[in-house]
Design goal:
Chain lengths: 410, 309, 457
């Protein structure tokens, strides 16, 4: 039996705060049901990856991003075929099995063909629940892009007012924006500590912090993060064996056990651009302008601060962003996590691979599925990747430096 | 004299190779098993040692690889089959740039750099399409020995088609073709084409390059190698013992590992002995041996990725 | 219900030894379309030699605009479909896979991106790498390099992302124009096919973009846009479309004189052939043949016993095969979403004098750009119009846009009309995904269910 040395992690140094966050991340529906019971409030389900939750919050609703369920897909099999990404299949399944009953309305802004297939299942299964699509333009740099998004913010405002039964006041939007910016800022502080390697935090734990922010009452989330941050100093600062960047995986979180398997196989993530990671928190909403304009601007800014394959923008490149990131963090390889059947990532991956290989940065692509983690196969790939990263060329007449020495000297 | 041992514990066979200090293989063994088995490993190791007239005391370093690499208690370290097949194939055919390994459990395409080191790799996904399992499915459905499939396919006269997307589904397809009175030879050839096309896809992921060799048991299936060669439009180099490539690679990595721990003088002496012996393993075809020539493999040092507790 | 008329059985053509007789009877007039399309591509392949500017585009039928601007136009999906129909998709797909595209990606996209990779590579490089076979290269590498790209993809998000990648394969050195086509979500009480506030408002946004597109083209071609030519093109398209729809309507007759497969063969002409008198003549020819068949009592399938609707995009590798396969079971595939709810299917919307609005509207009624409510409306209407007994859902492995609503539509058709259906897996341009077993067993099971349904009645 093999085992890696267990380093102290958030669950050890801030057990109480982390447990609350982890619980919401692991059981989002249970959290929302409980929240409704306690507050009598209404929950609005939003879908990844670009919905401005601040607007729903300002409408007096509790916005929560609908998550992929951990339960096996049953009835959903008869509604969306198996060749859809795990997130859309899970959403369809949850709609069919009643798991989404906790939501009082649904809203989305992203045009993804598979997601829309899942939303049609939601509409069909829950015909009485309001379901609004404010389709934000995905071509980001056309002369009409900004105007189109601004129009959709207005349409969204009208829809949300209809759902909540009250007008959305600009001051409320500003207050919501400030809250969510605060939450993002706190999360970025934690991510930065990992990035500059002043602390070592398992990727699966960081994911719990992000995922809980998608589900929890935002003020509670801020309170818990503030309780947790002072404990960061107690975490280990040991240099990781092989620092890598985790890239890809939109919409749904990578299974925590997969992240653990990867990090147990000889690498540690020092940075990422995952949606359930840095991508979610990379961009704040401007606070010094009209709040409705600011939300439209936030959407346009997001693809610049963390470029995404789901958006089309001629002057922004995910590959450049990734390479710049590697230079900053010192990550020596990239692991691309691809939800099987995710078309935007399938389309962009060759460009990422090409750019990385041109710079001799090793890249490993791992496909993920809803149905479990093939741990042994993943371990083999990651170990081979580490072997690839670590092999050195003992050229004749040259000093014989081992990979371990190189790492030690790093 | 010290030796090192490589053990490759696959899903259906255990292989062991012993190499001498100069890197030359001294002995090898292949043991068929029903499933991953520690006993199989023990038998393979014992056979290899006996064959080489050695005892366990002669082995200074052991590296395990393969699907069951963690089960090899004797091993000092373990490495993935990717690194080991790459290392073994380069040793067996110096200058090779692409290694295709089709095993019982999965299949891999491994690109080797100009320096003889692992560059890129691709492994088939979790489904068994394009693996050796496909041939097991075929032999079961056709009620012939898996070793006879190659000859059977060579006798094809008409074109049949199987989709090849899934090993389980392929069985249904094969049975259906039999029900339609399609000749077993034509079905076998169709399965060859299907597995080969999956393999071409795998190769595409690491990009085609030459020279190319196949390792693993399926490399002994001449009809399949011919079909794959046709689809790739490349000739595929022949290895006498493609099944032991992983174990040989493991043994050579064990040798590198051991050498990295011995004093410099001793290491230099061993290297000098190796060069004088003209060992085929480390000297390269078409290489004049001049420093800086990038055509040949060079000793590699790998860091451990697995810590044993 | 359709009018029922007495027709004599179609002549059953004997086939080779060991093969079942072919009970299908395809239109002969569509062969002219085959030649028209073949000539069109041959012409495209020489565009550079003729000093023409070439636009690569995907999605909507913008070709009347390109034609008016004097450009040569290459429709990406159309070229992928053509390669697949000629069983020559292999090298492009391998080039795509070698470049890194996973085989679960839209096979139109990866075939076309493979072509882009091949086109972009120098001729010398074509001799190395996986795509080394001279015969395979023949077609895939003939596409002339683009001078610029235009994307106008409705319904499928992959469509827009695909061209963003083609743009990158060509090193980001060529201009690209995106027309963004919003989904017709159809969730309001007043929403429906061609009605409601959403329908009235959305095309206006598209019209404004088309105006910008024309300015962009003027800049690329360095000459003023010929609006008269556009009007003329649209008048030809309007007439061709009217003839196509009139001919399709004649197929409400049972047994049907023409099938879905004939309409599939007519997709290329209506979708991207030059708008001219030849196009009108083609559809006049098709309509004439169908009328003649009705007069002569000739049916498209010998002994039609079942009338089936085909939902899903075409499996281009299998056109002839599927035509025979369905006919073998006395099934007439009478209509389909891909053929009947696409391709200038509402000609009354086209005003040749003021063509942009009608064009924008057509780009939005692409059959993958509707929400579920409108899809249901369209499906039930087609089933009623053509007296449909059953539905074949082509669960199209790499085309989620077409596959999206299918399983719900199957339930709706059963609930609201008692229409049975089955689903089989295949793909637009990747034959590896086609599973004959699921088609055969699903089709037979559906027909048996229909038999039992009829026995009860």
């Amino acid at each position: 039996m093999l085992k890696t040395k267990t380093a102290p992690s958030l669950r050890d140094v801030a057990p109480k705060a982390f447990a609350s966050l982890k619980l919401a991340a692991d059981e989002p529906i249970a959290y929302l049901e409980n929240w409704k019971r306690e507050t009598g409030g209404r929950v609005i389900g939003t879908f990844p990856m670009n919905f401005p939750v601040e607007l729903a919050h300002a409408a007096g609703l509790h916005p929560a991003i609908v998550q992929e369920s951990q339960t096996p897909i049953t009835e959903g099999r008869g509604l969306l075929p198996e060749f859809y990404c795990s997130y859309s299949r899970s959403v369809a399944d949850q709609a069919a099995t009643g798991e989404l009953d906790v939501f009082d309305a649904f809203v989305l802004a992203d045009h993804c063909v598979q997601l829309l297939g899942a939303i049609d299942v939601v509409r069909w299964a829950k015909p009485e629940t309001p379901n609004h699509f404010a389709q934000f333009i995905s071509s980001m740099d056309d002369p009409w892009s900004a105007g189109q998004v601004r129009d959709k913010i207005d349409a969204l405002r009208t829809e949300l007012e209809e759902v909540s039964g009250a007008k959305i006041h600009p001051d409320s939007v500003s207050r919501s924006i400030a809250l969510y910016n605060t939450d993002r800022e706190l999360l970025r502080e934690i991510f930065s500590a990992r990035r500059d390697r002043s602390v070592r935090i398992p990727a699966s734990e960081l994911q719990a912090l992000i995922k809980s922010s998608m589900v929890m009452d935002i003020e509670d989330h801020i309170r818990l993060l503030r309780a947790l941050i002072p404990s960061l100093g107690e975490l280990e600062t040991e240099k990781p064996p092989v620092p890598v960047h985790l890239s890809g995986h939109f919409c749904a979180p990578v299974k925590p056990e997969l992240l653990d398997t990867i990090e147990d196989a000889g690498v540690i993530a020092v940075d990422d651009d995952l949606y359930h990671g840095w991508r979610l928190i990379a961009t704040d909403v401007p606070e010094d302008e009209d709040p409705f304009d600011a939300l439209a601007q936030w959407y346009l800014d997001r693809n610049k601060s963390a470029p995404c394959a789901t958006r089309v923008q001629r002057n922004v490149d995910w590959d450049d962003y990734l390479i710049d990131g590697l230079q900053t963090t010192g990550a020596v390889g990239v692991i691309v996590l691809m939800a099987k059947f995710c078309e935007p990532l399938m389309l962009y991956y060759p460009e990422l691979r090409k750019a990385l290989e041109e710079r001799e940065v090793p890249v490993l692509m791992i496909e993920t599925e809803h149905e479990g983690v093939p741990a042994e196969s993943i371990r083999t790939r990651v170990e081979a990747f580490v072997e690839r990263v670590s092999q050195t060329r003992a050229m004749p007449n040259s000093n014989h430096i081992t990979a371990q020495q190189e790492v030690d000297n790093a | 004299m010290w030796h090192t041992l490589g053990v490759d514990l696959g899903s259906t066979t255990a292989k062991a190779v012993v190499v001498a200090p100069d890197g030359r293989p001294v002995s090898s063994s292949i043991v068929q098993m029903g499933a991953v088995s520690k006993k199989g490993v023990e038998r393979a190791i014992a056979a290899a040692l006996e064959d080489g007239g050695l005892t366990r005391g002669d082995i200074v370093r052991t590296v395990s690889t393969g699907y069951g690499r963690r089960l090899v208690e004797l091993a000092d370290r373990s490495f993935t089959e990717i690194s080991c097949h790459a290392r073994g194939a380069v040793a067996m055919m110096p200058g090779v740039r692409l290694v295709i390994d089709i095993g019982g459990q999965d299949s891999k395409a491994i690109a080797i750099g100009q320096d003889g080191l692992l560059d890129r790799f691709a492994i088939n996904d979790r489904c068994a399409s394009g693996t050796g399992r496909f041939f097991d499915v075929l032999s079961r459905a056709l009620e012939v020995e898996v070793t006879d499939i190659s000859d059977l396919a060579a006798a094809t006269s008409h074109e049949a088609e199987v989709s090849g997307m899934c090993a389980t589904f392929a069985e249904t397809e094969v049975i259906s073709l039999l029900a339609q009175d399609v000749a077993p030879a034509d079905i076998s050839a169709a399965v060859m084409r299907s597995v080969a096309s999956r393999t071409v896809g795998l190769v595409a992921q690491v990009r085609k390059n030459t020279p190319v060799v196949m390792t693993g048991g399926v490399a002994q299936n001449a009809s399949f190698v011919a079909e794959l060669s046709r689809q790739l439009d490349l000739s595929i180099g022949h290895l006498d013992e493609p099944q032991i490539a992983g174990a040989l690679g493991a043994a050579l990595i064990a040798r590198d590992d051991y050498l990295s721990t011995v004093p410099d003088d001793e290491r230099m002496q061993t290297e000098w002995d190796r060069q004088r012996s003209g060992s085929p393993i480390e000297s390269c075809q078409d290489c004049d041996g001049a420093a800086g020539d990038d055509r040949g493999p060079v000793p590699v040092t790998l860091m451990p990725t697995v810590t044993r507790v | 219900m359709p009018e029922t008329i007495e027709l004599s059985p179609t002549v059953v053509k004997p086939r080779g030894k060991d093969q079942k007789p072919d009970k299908s009877n395809r239109l002969t007039s569509t062969r002219a379309g085959g030649k028209m399309v073949s000539d069109y591509w041959e012409n495209i392949f020489t565009a550079k030699e003729r000093g023409k500017q070439v636009v690569w585009y995907n999605g909507s039928a913008l070709n009347p605009i390109f034609q008016a601007a004097g450009l040569e136009w290459c429709h990406g999906e159309a070229f992928s479909a053509r390669l697949a129909a000629m069983h020559m998709e292999g090298p492009a797909q391998q080039a795509g896979e070698e470049y890194g595209y996973v085989n679960e990606l839209c096979s139109y996209a990866r075939t076309h991106l493979g072509c882009a990779v091949l086109t972009q590579q120098g001729a010398s490089e074509k001799q190395s790498g996986i795509v080394g076979f001279a015969d395979q290269q023949e077609l895939a590498t003939k596409l002339p390099s683009p001078d610029f790209f235009v994307n106008a993809y409705a319904g499928c998000s992959t469509g827009q992302q695909w061209d963003a990648m083609t743009y990158r394969v060509f090193g980001k050195e060529l201009p690209m124009f995106n027309v963004s086509l919003p989904m017709i979500w159809g969730n309001k009480p007043d929403s429906g096919y061609l009605r409601g506030k959403e329908w009235e408002k959305t095309p206006l946004f598209v019209v404004e973009q088309l105006k910008e597109l024309i300015k962009f083209i003027e800049y690329q071609t360095k000459k003023p846009f010929d609006w008269d030519a556009l009007s003329e093109n649209m008048s030809y398209i309007k007439r061709a479309s009217e003839l196509r729809l009139e001919a399709m309507a004649l197929c409400a007759a049972a047994p049907t004189p023409a099938t879905y497969w004939d309409w599939v063969a007519s997709i290329a002409p209506i979708n991207f052939m030059p708008a001219n008198q030849a196009l009108v003549d083609y559809f006049q020819g098709v309509k004439d043949e169908i009328e003649q068949r009705l007069r002569d009592g000739v049916s498209a399938v010998a002994n039609e016993r079942y009338r089936v609707y085909f939902d899903g995009i075409m499996n281009w590798n299998k056109l002839g095969f599927l035509t025979r396969k369905f006919a073998e079971y006395d099934v007439s595939v009478v209509a389909g979403r891909y053929t009947h709810d696409s391709f200038w299917q509402e000609p009354q919307l086209i005003d040749p004098e003021n063509p942009l609005l009608g064009m924008a509207q057509h780009y939005l009624i692409c059959p993958i750009n509707h929400g579920l409510k409108i899809m249901e409306e369209l499906l039930l209407k087609r089933c009623d119009d053509f007296g449909i007994d059953g539905i074949a859902f082509h669960s199209t492995r790499t085309c989620r846009a077409m596959t999206n609503p299918q399983q719900i539509l199957a339930r709706i058709a059963e609930e609201k009309r008692g229409i049975k259906s089955f689903s089989f897996e295949g793909d637009v341009a990747d034959a590896a995904f086609y599973k004959d077993e699921t088609l055969e067993s699903g089709l037979v099971a559906m027909l048996e269910t229909i038999d039992q349904q009829r026995a009860r009645m």
